[in-house]
Amino acid sequence: MTNTPAEQAEKVAGVEVGERRISIPGMTEEGENLAAATNAAADHSHGGLGESKDLKSGSGSRANRRTGFDLESFPEPTGREEEWRFTPLKKLAGVLSDAPTVDETVTYEVTAEDAVVVSSLAEGTAPRNSVLQPADRAAVVASKNAPEALYVQVPADAEVADPIRVDITGNAAGQRANSHIVLEAGPHSKAVFVIEHRGSADFNGNVEVIVRDGADVKVISLQRWEDDAIHVGQHDAEVGRDASYKHVAVTLGGSVVRLNANFRYAAEGAEAEMYGLYFADSGQHLEHRTFVDHNSPRNTSNVLYKGALQGESARTVWIGDVLIRKAAEGTDSYEKNQNLVLTDGARADSVPNLEIETGVIEGAGHASSTGRFDENHLFYLMARGIPEKEARQLVVRGFLNEIIQKIGVESIEESLQEALENELQIHGH
């Protein structure tokens, strides 16, 4: 007997599909626009984040979120705006003001093989600002007040064996630093970029990543600041045809860290991933926002962020946006955030958002969870003679280790394991 389409349905990313195609009420195979009413407030192009410097504004659809380089169009936030309502704005006064870098607030050190070209880009010099479009006041201010951008370029067809490191060290707590970094991987090249932040400063930094056709690129951003540091930043990437891109954000230090990580596609056939790990202690506010812009067909994306919180007033925020535009047929996308609350008084906010404008996709889904220890896991370990304290540490390590393994650089993985051990010792977990 022939099975009906319903009987042939299978699970893809936790969503029931038939013949590899999700059934969405109100959608046709031609891809009706679900957001027509929402998008009516302002027309938008389907080219993605960085196709022009014209200001875009609107509400509702992520496609209409304001972007641009005009500072006057981004007034000082009040906290009532959707993009700022979770953020402790009083603590960010030093990085939201239109102010230049104080000399010697931060130092930069670039370590790379001879094949890698390191130079600088003045404002208006390509490829600077060809990908990154400021999406909030902080990013506009950083762009405006960084007259020279650090430019790190990997030539076409080059395979860089050792990680390319950009070490950023803050030398003065409360002193302002603006930064702009451009990373470019030529066609069919392969490279790992590591950006590590240490020390103390009020740091406002933009990073734009250009992944040319067929390239394989990994960007690892480590926020290992001292307890008095402030860091806001926007990381934008454009992924070329048949290219592979992975962005890993690890945030352990800093008083307030607010990082926006976004990517879009230049053509079809690309794979892009974003992973994040954060561990918040008492008094820390660690905020991560992601945006996947599926602006062309037949590309895949995956987003996974995991966090742990311990101590009174520890706070984390994760906001995940995925936009599958009408032109992005054949898209396969998934995003997930998981939080482990270790003590009373800690709070994690998690908001996954999925916007679909076409019904002709391979798969799409999102998930979010926040909770305490799984008592069954603890019981299993303690029943085998492991003391409760060690059992709890094992559970946390196992929970976060999935992200650490995505880094793929042994020295960094070992260092982070040690840092997490120290974090767990603080409250005896």
TrEMBL record:
It comes from Nesterenkonia flava. Residues 43-56 have a biased composition (Basic and acidic residues). NCBIfam families: sufD. It comes from the Bacteria. Residues 20-82 are annotated as: Disordered. Residues 171-399 form the SUF system FeS cluster assembly SufBD core domain. InterPro entries: Fe-S_cluster_assembly_SufBD, SUF_FeS_clus_asmbl_SufBD_core, SUF_FeS_clus_asmbl_SufBD_sf, SUF_FeS_clus_asmbl_SufD. This is Fe-S cluster assembly protein SufD.
